[in-house]
Amino acid sequence: MSESIPYTVEFGEVTGDPFTGFAFKDVRVRVKHSARESLRIREVDLQVSWSALLFRHEIRFERIVINLDPGKAIIRGHIFLKPSISGQCDIEDEHFPLDTLLRFTQQHAPAIRLVHTGHWAIHKDSSTVTVDMNGQLNEAPIWLHGNYGLGSVIHESLNWIGFPLRTFLSDRDVGGQTASLRLMVFGNVRRLNGSIQLKSVWADAECRLVDGLGFYRAIVGPSHFKSILQGRINLATLSITGSGVIQEGVWQQAHLAKMDFTFSADAHHQMVRLHANDVSWQSGTPRPTDVAEAEISMTGSNPRWRSVANIIFKDRSRVQVGGIVLLGDRFGRFTWNKLDIALGSAGTWTAQGAGWATWAPTGRMTLQHLYLRNGEQTIQVPSAILSKSGYHFEAIANQVETGPWATFFVPDVSLTGQFQSSLQVNGSPTDIHIDGFLNGHFPTLTDSAVGLSIRDIDVRLKCKNQTFDILTFTGKTKKGTIAIAGHSTLPQLDYTIHAHDWDIQPYPGSRASGNLDLTLAGKLNDPVLAGHIALKEAIYVAPTKEKKRNAQKPVTESPPTAPDSILASRLDIRVDWPRNVWYRDGASSVETRGDLRLQKATKASRLQANGTITSLRGSYTYFGRSFNIESGQLLFSDSDELNPSINIEASYATGATTVYLDITGTAKAPVLKMHSNPPLSDQDIVSVIVFGQPLNELRGRTGGVAGNQEMMKAVGGVLGGYVTKGLNQTGIPLLNVDILNIQPADQGGSQLTVGRYLTRRLFISYGQTVEGSAEKTITADYFMTDKWTLQGASNSSTGNYLDFLFRYPLNKKGSSVNTPPLPSSPFRNQLDQPTFQSQFRTPMQ
Asked: pTM score > 0.70 for this model?
């Protein structure tokens, strides 16, 4: 066979004769000198009319049946050989795999499964080819009519309605979503006229052409990540220009506030420039690599591009890089000729000479000749390779100041000092080899997130083959010391952690101190942390109501997934304390003792707790009254949820009556019941808590005054509603008001006040004296700013009035500029009374 023919054909079996036709079985067609897979045809049944060829110079196809695996096509028609080649054929196919032919005939054809069932009609005369197709293409109806001239003249209309997106986006979760394509064009290839429309959940695009010139506009992306594109097309020069913008883009856990971009491309040159603002890589959780602003440009043509990037991070650190990008079929490579890393005010790290990074579809990444200098500080990475099978890494650091790097990667951590290191790492997590050392002295280490502070840290690490020795790791805490030591043959771990009188402050008001004895064992890919923590003293302050409300807001984003290295770790730690561990919530204060065992299995995402926390003494404030804790216990059992059982009893005594609170159930579903000695009804018990005496005694003191009787009915109604709504439900009762209290009245007797916020700025309250004058007051406070309040009141004795109140904390120390401008509860109003008040009163009546 001649070398000029690009295909070779192999026949598994040939049967038949020239008179009745031939049958070919297991036909394989291969492209010569190519590794491309062959086209396999299961069977070809050929029947032709030889008489037409002899007498009319025409080949007539009586019937050609092509059976692929799967798929079938039947072809009928004829070809005229004189005076020019022309003819027509009719094709009926059923589940015919067009993608098989595309992959075989086109080198870069996409691996998309295209299956057609329907009818084709092809007619060729001396100047044009006409194609008509209708049927189902990938489960969606398609209509195609086109005239294609020898002079590249096109007249084509195409409607493909409802084709399944999963065919083209097989790696995306698009379910049964579909798209529609409509195309109508005519003219010369480079002077086309017509329009193209595409509609789907991922794109809504339109393009119109006049003599090869046109515009396009598109909205591209899923519903939560839309980009708007628009630009111009010039088919004569095969060029396209455009611009676009993305507003509030969200992709998985990443968030992009805005990105503008422009681009242009022709047959010889392409350009892309983009400018992005506020890029967060994990929604709701600030990260050191979050970007405040980024500018990136790429110019050139495939496969070589010149790239420049300027990235500013949220902490104002900056990276500037420039170089050449090479994009091939099997790899990508970036060679930098400029690389500057500025970490705050700690100077700039500058690359000394060129280096490069490569990546491949297999997941293999390499880094070569990275050499950074900042004054006397140097970091060298001669070679680094990361792949699925393992890694290789070399690094040399000299006189490196740790502070800027630590703050950049962990903003809550401040670490001062220097270290020197030379390390070479080879292998995989289960078979690792490390050679080298790391020595450093760090005067201070603080972690503001947990209130941890360690000083005078000395570190000396030594590695040889598969041994990793911690020769020295010591530091001083506020009152004690901390030390880590051990000798391990990797990947096995064997280290001890001892801390004496350590102290942490997770947030203002809370702190803990004690002794710590832990071991780190297991393997690198499955570490086990075990041991004992003995608390000496601790204070836990419950979050404020505002923080609780914020914590209870519905979560709209999926919680971040913990890294595999954390999920793979195991935990088994005992925590105990004999006394002096306090729980405080407002005026409530409870001292406890406890003995807990905290565990976490490999790949588990939650802790398990087993043990008991017992109250030793304390008080619990309920509805403004201080209840003495008689007994209390939280019982933790082995489960995937930290939800201990509760058994608490507290008492409040006033006069001859003692009220008891019994809290049972679980921490997430507590149940509160009240009883008293002597026994009282639920309404009388609540009356004792609110007014200091049962409701019937309160009625007896009104003296039968009609107004007071009406007031007592109102009080009884409020308490009855409270009992019905609260005590008869399963949870701890909550009254649907923001404030309910009783205090001495200026005219004698007691003043009952009930109030709530109608909006964040508007607070309404109702007050009436239970004894004495039975004066009634309705007050409305509108908080205009943090200092100015508009107050209106209607009083049954003094009439109506309107006040402008100015508040300024003249003697309030330590006030924060971050104090919320508006009160969040009336209780906060009472605690935040102004020391100076100016009133401008306008009589209303």
From this structure: no
